[in-house]
Amino acid sequence: MSIHKKSKRVTAETLRTMKHENEKISMLTAYDYTLAKMVDASGVDAILVGDSASNVMAGHETTLPITLEQMIYHAQSVVRASERALVVVDLPFGTYQSDSQKALDSAVRIMKESGAHAVKLEGGKNIKKSIKKIINAGIPVMGHLGLTPQSIYQFGTYKVRAKEEEEAQTLLEEAQLLDDLGCFALVLEKIPAALAKQVTQKISIPTIGIGAGAECDGQVLVLQDMLGMTHEFKPRFLRQYLNLYDEITGAVTQYVKDVKDGGFPNKNEQY
Ligand code: KIV
C-alpha cells in the first residue's frame, strides 16, 4: 500500500490508483478559504465544493436554489486554499440536465473561472450525453448515485434509496454505465451497505460513500456536519468528531459578556 506524499497534488488518476492499491480515499466538503486551508493541510485526498453549500452556507432547505455563479465563487475560495487535495465542484441544479451543450458550458465555466480540477454531476442514464460531452472535452467527471439531493422533490424524502430490488438493479447498471463513460469516481449516497459493496466490487473506478457503508473505496462527509456545527443534523451515518456548535456559541457568549462588563479589551489588548 503506497502512501501518497502530502506535497504532491492528488489527481483524478491518483484516486483510481488508490482503489487498485487498496488505499482508502478521504473526501470532505469545503466552501470557503479558511476551512478549506485547514482541510487541505490535514491531508484529505479530495475536497468537494458541494452544492450542499446551498444548505450549509446559505440556509436553504434544499440544494436546488444555488446558482452556477455562487458555486464558482465558493470554488475559487477553495482552490486558493488548497495545495494538495483534488478539488471537485458540483454542477448545480439546472445547469446540466436540459442538454449536453449547456452541461459542457457550465463545466467549462467552473474549470476556467475557479481553477478546480473536476466536476460532479448527479444521475445516470438520464444525463449520459452530458457526462460524455464533458469528459470528451478533457474534464474529469465524478458521478453521484443513490440519494441525489437535486431530485429530492421526486423522491419526497431523504430516506435510504435502493432498498428494493428494482431500484438496486438500476443503480448497479447505472454505476457500470458511469464507469464505461469514463467517470473517474462515483459518490454513493445513502444506500444499503451490501449494495454499495456490490457496486464497489463490480466497477473499476473508486466509490466514495456517504451513508453507504465501510466497503466503499472512500468516504465523504459534509465538513460542518462532522465538526458538529450543524448540531441538529444527526443522521445515523454521521460521525461527529467535534461539537463546534457548543464550542463556538460558548466562546461568543463569553465575548458578549466580556464586552458588556468591560472585561474586553484589557490593557494588553490596546495601543
Ligand atoms: O453537495 C454535497 O455535499 C454532496 C455530498 C453529500 C456528496 O454532494
Characterization of this structure:
The protein has 271 residues and is an alpha/beta fold. It folds into two domains: 3-240, Alpha-Beta Barrel (TIM Barrel); 244-271. Helices cover 41% and strands 13% of the residues. The chain is built from eleven helices and eight strands. It has helices spanning 12-20, 33-41, 53-56, 68-81, 100-114, 128-136, 152-155, 165-181, 193-202, 223-226, 244-260, and strands at residues 25-29, 46-49, 86-90, 118-120, 141-146, 185-189, 207-210, 218-221. An eight-stranded parallel β-barrel has the order 1-2-3-4-5-6-7-8, surrounded by seven helices. Strand 4 (118-120), helix 6 and strand 5 form a beta-alpha-beta unit. Helix 2 (33-41) crosses helix 4 and helix 4 runs parallel beside helix 5. The longest helix is centred in the middle third of the chain and has 17 residues, at 165-181. It is globular and about 65 Å long. The protein starts with 11 loop residues before the first helix and ends in an 11-residue tail after the last helix. Residues 1-6 have low confidence and may be disordered. 3-methyl-2-oxobutanoic acid binds at residues 29, 48, 50-52, 90, 187, 189, 210, 220, 222. One of its GO terms (biological process) is pantothenate biosynthetic process. It holds the Pfam family Pantoate_transf. It catalyses: (6R)-5,10-methylene-5,6,7,8-tetrahydrofolate + 3-methyl-2-oxobutanoate + H2O = 2-dehydropantoate + (6S)-5,6,7,8-tetrahydrofolate.
